[in-house]
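BUG: 3D viewer hangs when loading the predicted structure for this chain

Environment: internal workstation, default settings.
Expected: structure renders.
Actual: progress bar stalls at 90%.

Input used:
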Amino acid sequence: MSKNTSSVSEMPTIDPQQWQVGNHKDIFKKWIIAFQLMIHTIKLDKKPYEWVLSYKQLERQAASSYPGIATSARKQQHRDAQASLLYFLHRIWLDLLPDIIKAHPLQKYHDVNLEINGEPCCIGTLCLEAIDKYCAPQDEKTLDFLRSRFTAKMMTFSGLSSHSDAALHDFKAKLATTLTEWLELSEDQVYKVQEQALIRQSKGAINAYMLTATEIQKQMQWNKFLESLNIDLAFQAAPTIALYIDLLSKHATAAYQNLSLAGLTQGPSIDKATTAQVTFVATQDEKRIECKYCGGVHEIEVCRKLQAAQAKRNINVLHARDDKLPPPSTSKKSSINSKRFQGKARANP
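Structure tokens produced before the viewer hung:
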């Protein structure tokens, strides 16, 4: 990221103690005024970038400071501006709203599925908007409505409206919205305890959908998604809504690509040469919010602690034991055992 002309020490911050007891709407209102002034006075490579403060795409693109994406240099300016905004938000809000910050990693900027009219995902702007929405006043009546609406959403399933690129995009966009809603609602610990029940309700909704689905609708093989949950060690170890939605989104992508390869979709067929890395469980090119097993900043597929747990599980099976996966450990001894078990796991897939 390019250097700012403004010192990081000039960032408007929020007192954690005041945040705990104060009115979030008022605190955010005062903070955003100071933050907007800061963004308007600093530059990236001598170029202003206050366009990042606009939530609506048309408003952003109409701003005089908007660089556009017509050339490589302008694309770099676009990315640097979003990265800069995300950096400031990370420094200021990580300890106050960690779930929102972690749900907006810079890697999403490059996710082609999140592009809007060809513009890369403005992940920094989306993060600021999520913080803004979180701080909006919500009385108990409003919260009850939002909880009821989310519960109803988890209890229904309609699959893809058609086998088309647009339908897949809409389906994944709805999943992303569902995840954002959950991250906000789960701040309430009383509602968060319903997480497992909500997952069960969603699985039941998919089962009900498959019972009445047409043969064409069944081609997406949503039942295979449910079966995969039973053998996904990460989900079995930590069955969260965030991971559930992530796996559902990946299944939708993989199943749709299989249909496209078979010529069963309404959109352009997918070139087999470009899908070599795409399989039912492939995730190497898609970044997770965080490791759903240990919480580390890496993809779950390369989590050493999970690999150690998987290896230990294999060893226990050989000894006719059915122990549960151990919780992640950060001890030095666990790290050593992880490396030892990883080797055994490869020998005993």
